[in-house]
Amino acid sequence: MEKREGHDNKYGMVIDLDKCTGCGTCMVACAAENNVTVRADESDKERSIAWMQLYKIDNGRPFPDTEVCYFPRPCMHCDEDGRGGHHSPCVSVCVATATELDPHTGIVSQIYARCIGCRYCQAACPYHARYFNWWDGYSSFKPFSKGMERSLSPEVSPRMRGVIEKCTFCHHRLMRAKTKAYAENRRDLREYEYITACTEACPARAITFGDLNNPDHMVSRLIKNKNTFRLLEKLNTQPKVYYISSKEWVRKLADNYLPDQIKPVSGNDI
Amino acid sequence: MGSDKKKFTELLSVNRRNFIKFAIGGAVGTGLSPLPWKLIDDTAIFTQNLPWVPVPETGKFTKVRSHCTLCPGACGIEVRKVGDRAVKIEGRTDHPVNPGGLCPLGMGGLQLLYNENIRCKSPLKRVGSRSTGEFEPLSWDEALRALTHQILELRSNGKAGSIVAIDGYNSGSTVSLMIKRFMKAIGSNNYIRLPSMEGETAAVSKLMYGSDTPVAYDLENSDFILSFGCGLLEGWGAPGRLLNTWGLWRSAENRENATIYQVEPRASNTASKADKWIPARPGTETALALGIANVIIRENLYNKTYVENCTAGFFEHEAEGIKQRGFRDIIVENYNPDRVSEITGIGPDMIISTARAFAGAKTPIAICGKGKGTLNGDINEFMAVHALNALTGNINRPGGVLIGARPPLSELPAPEVDEIASESLKKPGLTLGNAVLKEYSSQTSAIAESILKGDGQEVDTLLVFSSNPAFTIPDGGDFYQSLAKIPFIVSFSPYLDETAMMADLILPDHTYLEKIDDMECPSLQYSFYGMTQPAVAPLYDTRNTGDVIIRLAEMIGGTTANSFPFKTLEEAIKSRVQGLFDCKEGSGKYNPSDTPSKFISAGTGVTPDFKDFKGMWKQLKNGGFWYNPLSHIKNNADIFNAPESKFEFMSSRLKSLIEASTAKPASDTLEEPLYMPHFRGSEKSDEGYPLMMIPYEMINLSSGWLPNPPYLNKSLFDSQLKGDDSFVEINPETALAYKLKEGDKIQVTSAKGSASVRVHLFDGAMPGVVFMPMGFGHMAYDDFSFGKGCNPNRLMGANIDPLSGQPAWWYTPVKISKAI
């Protein structure tokens, strides 16, 4: 096994919940980019597949003090815990080596051809970021074809029934950017040369994507913000997706905190 | 022995009992053996090897630039193609309206192109009864001949006026102008646009500002926005622009964040993300605006220079020799915070602090137009809101209210009218019997009024363009019902929508990704003109409606044909674009560091960058755009330099309209003139309907004529739609009073109709109000939309706006009962 001495790059995402308007464009852009399947009844959330999922939360206070906020949730691309212990929850349970943590990019991959459909990873993921294909989503045959398979992108393989799928940080975009860079005789990517489809699509520019290992990248600066947090941080899964919110009630809902566990951030609290 | 033998033969004989024994034994035996499981497994493995899952064909990667015309927002899009197939729509980074971003509907647009179950694939003729969807394909020649014949016959019978067109194309687009011109040439005054906020914005512009072009708001340069129910994050105006601007307002780097106050009865996205949420009772927004005006006037916070020099009707004045009290005195007398607090449910402190914050800001703007602004607005409320803008004087300057200027496109030559047509044009078009503002508001509802209440002689043939009024008109289903009684309906929709299902003839248009089209965007604070180009070749036997109209005119012949001196839509667009070139202003390039709002605040124009017309046309035809950041500011100089043009707190134009109108709106209790903004309260007694139903719009649910692309359905929560049931949001307190719990099925009943929905308990819903999402309840399209949820339009329409005569959809008294 390859010796792991930290990643060359560590791609990560910062989502500013103060900017996020909950419009759902990230979800649509993600589905369109990654050939995610659609079902007639998308309201069956146990069957619906959404690599990027939008959650709605509210502050639980009665009218008229109610306030809502949205959590866009891609795959967190969990990392090693840095203490020589476990790595990403899904990677550590996969019996088929169908999901791996790439040491060069920090991206947690999903290899459909290897997946045997046991769904251990789905059970292990604390963020519900993994989805199982109970049926073939797209079909080229009548009467299952609805013509929509004509917009499938050749950059991402459509999944067959019986495998798990999840957000890949638009890995094919990394490949695309690298190919371009190599053609221009560069080995390093510029900032924003590789961004995910959701980052690109967000009309409010709430999502920032970049290399967390590169101190010059905006993401590295943003995670130093005092209002930055991650989901279920106590599990020590080391997600590479960060959130920013100036509202304490939002930050509180990011984990199952006991009353004395969350420390208020001084400054612009609500 | 004998009996044993008998038993043995009985055992062997095939009687009923033995047969059943054998069958059950066999079944149990097979079940215990590995055979069936092995067979099922083998079948599963076998079918997994069948090539069901498509392998997307690869090809050359290209990008096509164009515009999204799904709403009037004019966002720039870039369609990513692989070979001949479009695989993704992305926002254009080189575009002034939406630098990079898009709304979810625009992002999911490919499913409106490729979903073949919703598309109309060739001209169709109805063979079954209406709404059953039994059609027979026919050739374009046959279809055009049928329509030509119909029009010629009505014309020869002197009934050209009974041809009615409903136009849902974006206002100012060339196709829209051609439909209007076609109607005039054949001799009908019944060219009707769909109701939308644009109509009322234009009306306020005319009534108070005295301008023929609608007002626009320089939100990007404003530091305080007081929004009266505008769904800034729900798709209001140009969603790409608003969402982008919101991100800028909320970015940490931005030192000059705008403060946003949202007046709305529900904790919507906008209300939650705003700095302050003011949950005024629905229908009392006018009173709140006037209450704020009251505080501003009493505390002398208004802009005295502006009010004294640039407005009329504020002070006591003489009108036709009679002393007339001014806006100031009436407002001070009638709208003190205590009274307004009683009406709106907002505490006097909040009213006072809002007024102080608003008047104290450098560039405050008050805006109006509820939800996405795709339905008509309340003129009175619009007037009250603009009175606030006049009090601060933040008009005609950066960060304020600007009077729009249309892009200087060339006029098309005037249509020719023959004898039959000119005779027929003497007859007035359909108008709502009770409307004062006939010219300014959409008369779509007049169709239903004529058919359901009158003899229906006025409507013989209905042409429906780029819209689905059977689904979108908030009139309790009146329009839908009246469709059944219209002798001949022609739909030009690319989709088999509710209206098309009622049609006798469908002449399908291309979708927006398959055709050449153009648009203005009147909600922008600068003039803009953009063109779309076909991103993919037409998939089916459809034709651009612009070209179809030209062909129709040609077939009708005579002056109608002469009115269309161009062979194609493209030629017509090209002749209009000439005007853009001739004005020698404007640019077709966008640099992200020079946004239009920067130009406006700096007061410097763009360098005109079109060298010759040929180059300009080529650029525009490739999905290009033309914009002039300073157009509105310049236009304002023209308008406001005229000595008589003043902002009118008391609209003299409305006054004369009311005097000329036969239908007098009910007199009010406050003795305020009807032609100034005033609050009248609800006129009807709402007995039997103790609750209010307020529809709400979501940015991720298409609420207009288009079905929701399936990708967007993913983003809907299962507390909004579950299976085929949509949910209404109700405050837990209200639910308790009706003994309702989460997910309960209820019946919501208004004077107009009844609907079955489920309950979602939401603290952010105002008590006593039932909030129903708009966009569900399609009775056409495919599995992804058909029969999902309930359409609130079917409950609305009992209340009528007294000035425009249109349904007051923003307020519907209802009752609820638990469904058993």
What's a concise summary of this model?
The complex is a heterodimer of chains A (270) and B (820). Chain A is α+β, with helices and mostly antiparallel strands.
Give the C-alpha Rg of chain B. Answer: 30 Å
The largest β sheet of chain B comes out as: 7 strands, mixed
How helix-rich are the residues of chain B, as a percent range? 25-40%
Strand order of the largest sheet of chain B: 5-4-19-18-17-6-7
Total DSSP helices of chain A: 7
Poorly predicted ranges of chain A: none
Give the fraction of residues assigned to helices of chain A.
10-25%
Q: Please report the first level of CATH classification, the CATH class of chain A.
A: Alpha Beta
Beta-strand content estimate of chain A: 5-15%
Alpha-beta content class of chain B: alpha/beta
Rg of chain A computed from alpha carbons, rounded to a whole number of angstroms: 19 Å
Low-confidence stretches of chain B: none
Number of strands of chain A: 8
Quaternary structure of the protein: heterodimer
Total helical segments of chain B: 30
Mean pLDDT of chain B: 90
Question: Can you offer a commentary on this structure?
Answer:
In chain A, the strands form three sheets. Chain A has a four-stranded mixed sheet. With 270 residues, chain A is α+β, with helices and mostly antiparallel strands. The longest helix of chain A is centred in the middle third of the chain and has 13 residues. Chain A has a single domain, classed as Alpha-Beta Plaits (2-Layer Sandwich), CATH 3.30.70.20. The relative contact order of chain A is 0.22. Chain B is α/β, with parallel strands linked by helices. Chain B is built from 30 helices and 30 strands. Chain B has a seven-stranded mixed sheet, with helices on one face. Chain B is globular.
